[in-house]
Specification:
5-stranded mixed beta sheet; Arc Repressor Mutant, subunit A; alpha/beta; D-Maltodextrin-Binding Protein, domain 2; 3 domains; 10 helices
Amino acid sequence: MATLDITCLRSLVSVASFGGVRRAAEALHLSQAGVSGHLRRLETELGFPVVTRQGRNIAFTSRGEDVLREAYRLLGEHDDALHRLLGPASGELLVVSTEHATEALLRAVARVLSRDHPDRPVRFRFHRSARVREFVHDHSADVALGIGDLGQGTRHITELPLTWVGPSDRAPDTGALVTFTAPCTVRDHILASEAAAGGAVVRECADLVSLLSAVKSTGGVTALPRLRLSEPGLTALDSLPSLPSVPLTLVTSNRLASRTRDGIIAALVSTA
């Protein structure tokens, strides 16, 4: 019977979030060979390719996207269970981020934390902003990055312009709308747009991986922050009415020194 190793799944999610094996290895404090080995172990266990090379980049296969979706869910449940049973991991710095954060923004946060706390491991968790707010509310996140109001201590970083996107391999069906499930600020902007007046929601998705897959499979359209326009298989659409921007926001724990907090803010502003 096949099994899914949590360490391998964490490497898989990091590769997706940081945009490659090298950057994932840096964030996890592992060697590139170690992260690559985790991916190969997953593929061996499952019996099918999870990732494929596209030039110097790595892309997920269709079935690999399914694995990635399950990896997000399983890691969340695993980490929540450990937190309930054991409490926060000693010495660990927890960064909880919206799925819309790009690898450049995540690297900016990781660099500051590694600079100021070189001996403390940094763990990233990725959730919808509604779930990020829960981490802020119970004070379990050292750094929380999301869209909109995250609760007490929310700091505005920048405005993220939204851009319509569709599949790059065919003419998009602009009347077929793909959205996140509610609650979601991006979803609200999509449904309030002029484009929604003559269209219909064909798929509602619980996470970013599902959303991207749905756009490719249905041929429909969605909206993403402009920072994410490098997603493979998608192309920006300039023919649809413009959308309002969404605020990228930050909350840092009082456990972090003001130097670290200010460093994170400066790094995010310069990156965004």
